[in-house]
Amino acid sequence: MQSSTKKNIWQVIMASSAGTLIEWYDFYIFGSLSYIIADKFFPNDNHTLAYIATLATFAVGFIVRPFGSIVFGRLGDIVGRKYTFLLTLLLMGGTTFAIGLVPGYATIGYAAPIIILILRLLQGLALGGEYGGAATYVAEHAPTARRGYFTSFIQTTATLGLFLSLGVILLTNMSMSSDSFNAWGWRVPFWVSIVLVITSYYIRTKLEESPLFKEMKAAGKTSKNPIRESFGKKENLRMVLLALFGATMGQGVVWYTGQFYALSFLQNTMHVSLSQSSIIIAVALLLGTPLFVYFGHLSDKIGRKKIILGGMILAAIAYYPIYRAMDQTVMLDRKQEVTSLFKIESHSESNGEGALVRHTTRIYTYSDSTQLRKIKTETISGDQTILTAEKDEIKVSRSATVWLIFLVFLQVLFVTMAYGPICAFLVEMFPTRIRYTSMSLPYHIGNGVFGGLMPIIAVSLVSKTGNHYIGLAYPIAVAVICVIIGGIFIKEKPIRDLSIED
Length: 502
Prior knowledge:
Blueprint: H1 2-32, H2 34-41, H3 47-63, H4 65-78, H5 81-99, H6 105-108, H7 111-139, H8 147-174, H9 178-183, H10 188-205, H11 211-218, H12 226-232, H13 234-269, H14 274-288, H15 290-302, H16 305-328, E1 343-350, E2 356-365, E3 371-381, E4 384-395, H17 398-419, H18 422-427, H19 435-451, H20 454-465, H21 473-489
Antiparallel strand pairs: 1-2, 2-3, 3-4
Helix pairs in contact: 1-5, 1-7, 1-8, 1-10, 2-3, 3-7, 3-19, 3-20, 4-5, 4-7, 4-19, 5-7, 5-10, 7-8, 7-19, 8-14, 8-15, 12-13, 13-14, 13-16, 13-17, 13-19, 13-21, 14-17, 15-17, 16-17, 16-21
């Protein structure tokens, strides 16, 4: 079986990773466009509350992931790995495409956020079943001595999915006017997903079932009740809890802080423009992505645990100085304004309802080339002028852009350490007959609940206290707790063959 797995491993990785990449892309475009979704699907009389409501809707998709892991994990342990992640792919892609079709709050009122919430629930359920299937499938094909290396390619798909979503959003945004993008162009990335899903589904249909699962099924040793075996037996439940509190919850908060919260901080706290903040995150991710594979490979040599926990503790130590350094790049009271470069730009357009919409932008330029754009939108109907939107947008200088890329890259480095080896680490903790179910639940609670709630907890804390950095208290605390529990109670075992006798 080992020679067969070596022969087919790259085909397996490509097919599994392609589907997982697209599912993460589907999931992340919602988060990346959350500032627009807040305006389109929620009452816009209070933008901060609308944005928090959007993040809450985003978080719901994460919270239901553990339920998806139970439903689809059970299916994967009974029916098979391949057919389960075909189903999750179609469910994920269909709901994403549907989000791009939902009319806004201005058209259908409160039905809009309700429909979006339901679609997010379905997305979360599908993603809850996806990762465990892909991870188990690749691990059960991989050579023992290189399991960390080969499974680490799956780990790149989450980051590449975010990178792809940012790329599509950026290209769409750059291909049309700002007004067109805000009016309807933001829907394009959701529509594009259906093409990607169809392509991935075709690739996955060419796969065969996991050799270990086929061997186990032929021997009549598949689990009759994976849920009961996973969580009803004391020893296995103990391993599930250790996987959660000693590894995945810390990995989850490091992952979402280093990518999602970094993007949210750039856009909503620092007010860096959409295009520039997207470029900063995308370049940092592009530079950091190969490190997933490096740390996966390194874990085959020196062990998984020390790399995973090392990434968490480094993150906990470094977050505050990193975010303080990011924030200082846009502290305008420390910069010298060049008053001779001040200018005002204004243009008007009809909104299709007989009213005139006037956009006025005041542009302040500073000596280091930083620009502050104060944008005001007014709707003029008859003799009445109504202020409909007002926001600040900052364009940082080239040198500051490079500095911000470096600071985000450091966070991505911590992510790759914590996340690169985690797939192999989890697979090796649980027996073959209940592996899909057992590893999926702690992974999705750690990432879906502890990690997925990170953005809304952080933004809520900042909104309530006015302290730009108070949101970091949550990921720092979770990471430290995880390092303590994992360091004390998880005993790393020698890497061994996976077997149906486990």
